[in-house]
Amino acid sequence: MALASTSAIAQDNASQRDQPSRWAGSEIAIGVLQHGSNFHPLGEKLIFDLPKLPAGQIYEGSEEDGTVDVQLTYRSAPLRFALKPRLTGKLQINTAGRTSFASLGAEWRQHILDRRLYGQAGIGLTVHDGYRFTPDPFQPGLPIGEARRRFDIYLKRTSFGSRVFFNPNASMGVRLGPRWAIEATWEHFSHHQLFSGQNPGIDNLGLCLVHTFGRHR
Fold it and tell me: What integer pLDDT is reported at residue 53 of this predicted model?
């Protein structure tokens, strides 16, 4: 009876090990991105370097460029329909106190070279904690302190024209092992002038370290 009981326990444990975890195939990732990278692969041209302006002058929509974001991501395991998308949630936090983003969406992945490399594209909806429209520092009659406060905002913060963005994104990944990968990623945020005429948009580039729960798919 003792041998039978021990055998039954061992079989039960083996069966539990063989059953996939509810998290199997899902992923978490942490990344560092340049906030405002002046790179948009879907635009009319690729822009890496804007001409340098005199001190005190800025390009409209470039007020936040050059700061750094930390991105936290969760991806579900691939769903079994519509080309197997992964549901995604992302939180992108600016480390310089500029605009941060929270996104929900889906991503589709294609592997090559015996699943060592993959490409990925996605789309999402985003809300942010920045400005739809920055306060006007040139409004007549402002107290000098308020005018200076607004002018500082005008120099450092972007007027995005909407609280809600679309978030097309893409990445290229390299497998470091069964459960780890590194990705080069691009994130774009804009509303395509659907909610106002003000739509500078913003593009972010960076690297992400990805951990897969269970076997990667």
Answer: 54
- 90, two tokens: 């992302």
**∠ Cα 204 210 216 (to 5°):** 130
* Cα distances (angstroms) measured from residue 163 to each of 67, 128, 133: 20, 6, 10
Closest CA to 131 of 67, 35, 64: 64
Query: What value does the mean pLDDT take over residues 200-213?
Result: 95
The neighbour count for residue 4, using CB atoms within 10 Å, is: 8
Give the Cα separation of 95 and 167 in Å (integer): 20
Task: Locate the domains of the chain by residue range.
Answer: 29-48+71-212
Lowest mean pLDDT among 16-20, 77-81, 139-143, 188-192: 16-20
Q: Are 119 and 169 in contact (CB under 8 A)?
A: no
Q: Which CATH class is domain 29-48+71-212?
A: mainly beta
Q: Where do the H-state alpha helices sit in the chain?
A: 2-18, 144-156
**CA of 199: how far to CAs of 8, 22, 39, in Å?**
65, 41, 16
Cβ contact 34:66 at 8 Å:
yes
Listing DSSP states for 20-62 in one string gives PPTTTT-EEEEEEEEES-S--TTSSS--S-PPPPPTT---TT-
